[in-house]
Amino acid sequence: IEPELGFGLNLSITTTAQHMKALGYSTHAIGKWHLGFCNIAYTPTQRGFDTFFGYYLGAEDYYTHRRSGSVPGIEGEDVSINGLDFHHDNGSSYSNVLTQNQTYSTYVFAEEAVRIIADHDAGVPLYLYLPYQAVHGPLEAPQRFLDMYKNIENKDRRIFSAMVSALDEAIGNITKVLQSRGLWENTLLVFTTDNGGPVTVGANNWPLRGSKATVWEGGTRGSAFIHGTMLNKTGYTYNGLMHAVDWYPTIVAAGGGQVTDPDMDGMNMWPSLANNLTSPRTTLVYNIDTSINIAAIRSGPWKFINGTPGHDSWYPPANASMDTEEYLSLYQNDFEVANKTTKWLFNLDDDPLEKTNLYETMPEQAAMMESQLKDYMKTYVPDLWHQHQPDPKCNPAHFHDAWSPGWC
Hints:
By secondary structure, the chain is an alpha+beta fold. The chain has ten helices and 13 strands. 34% of the residues are buried.
């Protein structure tokens, strides 16, 4: 959600935090929200969290905690606006965080998590949602972590690596306080990504094809791990099919609850993950977006793409001898290639790197997948992004120089 757009997560949706709150958990969110803020009803403490410490938007500066945007001017020209996006919300109390300018956000978020855990009543269950800013752009890292990667000449990859190490240290500090408080043995830790990495800003998905914002496996296949004594089987890699929306009912189930919404897309994966059982999911939608002419689905091992999948290639790791501009040229030169073909069929069990398009050689399987995609299209809901225009009322200048609720 861009800063200037006046919408948020539909208020009729019950969030994970609201479910956990109903189960008796103390609920806290630290880090990135990005689910709407133009109206106070969209903000975290109105969506199930007792407290929130972080930022409402995305891609802000790691040190100044400010974010830019643009709105139409009097004559229709774009006018740049900028404001602080750092907030500490507690129940119905809202305040801007003014004391952390020039403090790296990974440090700040870890310190807040450590404080919450250290002060937590061990007799009450705790749900802590901690979507770090790292390692999202802009690429910024403290010097002591940059010094660890002097051997990497590619500037973006060097900074990205430093950001990962800073994040690793922060997570380590959180696990230490859980252990010191005697909470670790009863904690389920979930660590997950939300998409593949953007190869233009230091990330790499090799050997998978593609980048963030594409429907190739490199842009969509994420990695995750879970840790906890409540897992009946451990020390294994789970290869069952799982979609990001499955975390919603899965986390609630792990916490002792159940999501019964008949319109929910997610599936409860907790029994499968805890016991290494077959996944209940056999199909998933990668994306359907008519505004950019892309749709992709998976059924079993089969993947079907219709439209323009996005930037296309297998981007090798940015090694020490390849500078940033040379590496980016690989990305910029492939877009026309991806646009020449509009229908793709892959068997991901045999071809996880998406090397061989089977659309022409397996017409029956392709027709079956295309028919399945058309069925999904019947329930397609247009995205809210294209239904809203930038609203000048969002300007932080109206709210003491901070991105704030109260304009939609």
